[in-house]
Amino acid sequence: MTQDPSKAAKARAVVASLLIAEAVVIAALGVWLLVLTITADSFEFLPLLGVLLFIAMASGGLAAAAIGYRRGKYFGRAPAVLANLIALGVVSYQVQACLWIAAVPLAILAGATLGAALRAIPE
């Protein structure tokens, strides 16, 4: 199946932009967790290390997937799909906890990114 190169480039750009938005959100969440860890009454090194690894792997992985999409490479497709399926699983827990203020935006972002990642067809 042949696709118009300009449409393919636009689809990749949409996916890359959504992945960058997710990476920024995860980085902000990681920084918030980092501040909470540092300002806690009792300081533990291992939880701090876990937060730092979370920030680096989650945010960095989504950013790397976005860069791959922008360049027309599809090595980031599987991590993008997996990360957003996990995010939709997190949404179900947030809904059960009636945490709608977090569940709705996350569901919209994860659903849009997942849909866009699955629709972007390799050249």
Automatic annotation (TrEMBL):
Segments traversing the membrane: 12-39, 45-67, 74-93, 99-121
Keywords carried by this UniProt record: Membrane, Transmembrane, Transmembrane helix
Protein name from the UniProt record: Unannotated protein
Organism: freshwater metagenome
